[in-house]
Amino acid sequence: MGATRTTSTAGPQADGDRRRVSDGAGVVVLGSCAVWSVISASVHGGRPEGVLLAVLAVAAGYAAGRICGSLLPVAALCGAALAGLGLAIGTPYLVPGPEPGVPLGHAGATAGLLVLCTGAACCAAWGTAVPALRLALRVLAAGVAVAAALLGSPAGAALCAAVLLCSLAAGAMRSRGTGIAGLALAATLVTGTIWAVAEHALPDGLAVSLQARLTAQRVELWQDALRLSGEDLLLGVGPGRFGELSPAAAAAPFPDGKPHSAPLQQLAEQGVVGLVLLGAVFAWVLHALWRTARPTPVALTAGAALTALAAVAAVGNALSFTTVSVGAGLLAGLATAQPLAEPSYDPR
Question: Which of 189, 170, 173, 61 is nearest to 125 (CA)?
Answer without folding.
Answer: 170
